[in-house]
Specification:
heterodimer, A: 188 residues, mainly alpha, 10 helices, B: 137 residues, 66% helix, globular, transmembrane helix (chain A), membrane (chain A), transport (chain A), cell membrane (chain A)
Chain lengths: 188, 137
Amino acid sequence: MEFIYGTWHWSISGFLIGITMLILTYFGKSFGMSSNLRTLCSMAGAGKFSDFFKMDWREHKWSLAVVLGTIVGGFIAYHFLSNASGVNLNPNTIAQLQTLGIDAPNGKLLPDAIFSIEMLQTPKGFALLMIGGLLIGFGTRYAGGCTSGHAISGLSNLQLPSLVAVIGFFIGGLVMAHYLLPIIFKAV
Amino acid sequence: MKLARFFLTGVFFGIVLTKAEAVSWYRIYEMFHFQSFHMFGIIGTALFTGIIGLQIIKKKKLKDYNGFPIKIIEKERGFWRYIIGGAMFGLGWALVGSCPGPIFILLGTGTYAIAVVLLGALLGTYIYGLLKDYLPH
């Protein structure tokens, strides 16, 4: 049963993600997770302040049902389909993280140095999570999609704008991972 | 229940992304440092599957679940919105290690801290809505 409880092989995982996109296409919808953020803003009444949120969010109920499903899926996978044997990183990565004061995974999905309740209660920890979220929310809506909408759906349909967006994802990601994370974590 | 099939697709997607460890901050860090093939393999295989699937749908002019022809929406033309917006998302993705899908999935794994990321993402989306008309697209 190790093949279920351990890390799923990249080929199986990638295939199933592609299938998810195709299933939604078959249902007559498109695969994109970040547009739900706009729908949620619209539900909360943001249409009063910007026309961008003046939409009938009921037309997007199907997408919110997908979101609700992913939360349940995360719960099931974490509690019933895992045995803490996963996240086996490159030993070089673990050594590098150690120099930044970031704990090794040891089967965890997320580092305590960023996601623990203790960190959450510090101004720096809270600010990191908040700024990350702001960049994700603003950036995905500006770019009109995230990993699912551009990197998977858009590129699968050979869309040039999606290629530009994915290049953008990597420019931002490389700058953060190589230049900013070391500054952020060494300046504790 | 009209929404049940969407909910179940979401459950499936949530399980796959969690078991693929695409929701793991560590995997995103490792990807941006090119220290593992794992994430590249996942994205590459998903793309390979997606490209072939969409080609079949187009060539065979397949009908969707409701019997309508499947329309695949083309992305709007543009450059600045994709490169600037994309880079901003990339900065956030590498900082907190989650894209919008995993933000929701991680809520399900019981990670309370991700609620702050979700709050930030909603706020960021809202700010974009306010500034949209002043930005180059």
